[in-house]
Write a structure and sequence with these properties.
Elements lengths: L5 H8 L18 E3 L11 E2 L4 E4 L11 E6 L6 E12 L4 E12 L4 E10 L2 E10 L3 E6 L6 E5 L4 E8 L4 E10 L2 E12 L12 E4 L11 E3 L4 E4 L8 E7 L6 E6 L11 E12 L6 E6 L6 E5 L7 E2 L3 E6 L4 E8 L8 E6 L2 E12 L14 E3 L14 H9 L3 E3 L11
Parallel strand pairs: 27-28
Antiparallel strand pairs: 1-13, 2-5, 3-4, 4-13, 5-12, 6-11, 6-13, 7-8, 7-12, 8-9, 10-11, 14-26, 15-18, 16-17, 17-26, 18-25, 19-24, 19-26, 20-21, 20-25, 21-22, 23-24
The structure holds calcium ion (2 copies).
Length: 418
Amino acid sequence: MKKLLLSTFLFMFAIMTPIGFVSADQAAAPLHEEGFEGAIASTLYTLNTPYGTLTKEANQVIAGTGSIKGLSARGTQWAEYASLNKRVQLTAGKDYTISFKYRILEQEGNFFYFYMKQQVNGADVTSGFNFKSGGTIPYRAELAADQVRLTEKDGYWLAEASFKAAGDGLYNMLWGIQDGGVIVIDDVLIKEGKLPVMVNKTAAVAIEGFESGDLTKTSFQALGSGALVQQAKAIQGKYAVGASATVQQEWHEFLATDPAKLELAANTVYTVMFKYKVVQPEGQDSYFYVMAGTGDQSKAMNFGSSAAPIWTNVDAAEVADRGTYKVAKMTFKTGSTPDMQVKWGIRKGGAIAIDDVSIVKGKASIPTQEGPHIGYANVVDYGAVPNDGQDDTVAFQQAIATGKSIFVPAGVYHIEES
Ligand SMILES: [Ca+2]
Ligand SMILES: [Ca+2]
């Protein structure tokens, strides 16, 4: 069985956003699975009167034809509506993950909760978490932050928690409501293994040098006159993206992130950095620009032949001169619109080439030293291939051996413990 070495790597990722990291450990057969499609007596669950019922109402059910519904009034402190009482055997020292779907039908007075209880050496060991509308977890017991995850899905939320069984035995697992609220839960699943560490697989793009010679293989799309250019116009390597516009073209966009491959989260700080070469200088009242977002929420920087931004509405925009080309960066916070793109354009004439584009979460400065990947070891450069189902362990080890910070482009990687 494949395991993820992620805990070893996490500190290295600390300065970069870990991206696209998904465990390969998905194959284990569930220990327990319940979708509440039949009578409750046919399940291992106990519903506690008056809080728990089996609902078959189509507008309440999450999946299939039945879900469990928990309902309690304001002022009721600990309303345990459902339990899975000592029916699932767990083994001491093993990691398990429990997941269930839920939908809140009426907002909590205080919180909803899920807890596990077990006797270890005669003492109760309790672990679990409280959760609220909007996916917040006000309290966790005996579970680290990365062991509990609430993810919004289409029409419901998925709760996942992983834990190490403190002792052999049959656990008591229970679901409840604190101070009123109405909730439905469904599709409870318990399986061996830790919660895979998973972040938005398109949260950022590694440094893109366009060296595949195929824009469709990147997280970018060409607009207008934008196209891959070669050789003389390339800044680093063989390819760059080039574009030109006439003085009559006021806002000529030529490159954008592909929203199908790269999604910028709302209200999040990102830094976009890229190299550029002015092929035909901008004229008077003319400039090149990079922008994120639209309308009132857009963040932009205008740049050109000078080694400083021409104009910007962000605090952290920079241009550095590297002789034959320049490096520009803009740190910006996205607005409340979740589908933001980063776009490059030309206003009123000029020609430009863009290369080595990176978009990462958080702040970053233009490095003082130049290198093909500006101080980062990109695992892809060491042979890791995302999304191919093959083992990437050696590539990661080699990238780590460089002593540089590790950069992980979007995708799924498989790493085996040795
Ligand atoms: Ca169901
Ligand atoms: Ca290049």
